[in-house]
Amino acid sequence: VNRPAFWGIAGYPISHSLTPRLFSLVGDHLGMRTVQKVFLEARNIDEFKKHLEGLDGDVWLSCTAPLKHSPNDRLGISAPQGVNAINQLMRTGVEWSGTNTDGTGFILACRQIGIEPSGNILRIRGGGSAARAIAAAWATVGGLLIPESGRRQLVSGPWDNAVVGGGEAALGVDLDAKPGGGGSTPLDANIQVSISYGDGAGTGEFAVIMVAAQ
Asked: For this UniProt entry, what's an example GO CC term (predicted)?
């Protein structure tokens, strides 16, 4: 198994993140205990690059807000169409690569709690990178969407044909909830989940299941 010299998380805030712990569990399982964990608190791409100057070797990072958009422009990485954001970064030598796993993690977490996206409506609030990734993934597997305005509107994208004007939503998610376990705006749906978790979050929480699924 290929292994980096460092792995961890970058962004701000990150103190509540489960990612380094998950990396440790996976590393132990794969016999990669020598990989060093890193927490790179960075409010912008310049702070992020400054942290990297002290890391000699390959790096695997989970990238959270506010850094999800910066790799596209500053590191030359192509983001998934319509999503336009990266949340997983890998530096091999001097070359960077990356992708976005928010949508995949959300779909897998839904299936874990017994909700199959295909044919079901997701009521989704917000229009940021996580919202776009989830909308794209939900539409790809045959789900339908009712966007709700939040701080940002969900823009036009690959999910446009999945948008419906009304109907019973099987699931709702407020993607404008603040990181670290911030509260959600109630939505008209049979079940509402959150992808925001804080200190002390349990393994049965949807947000934790989603992180583990990624």
From this structure: cytosol
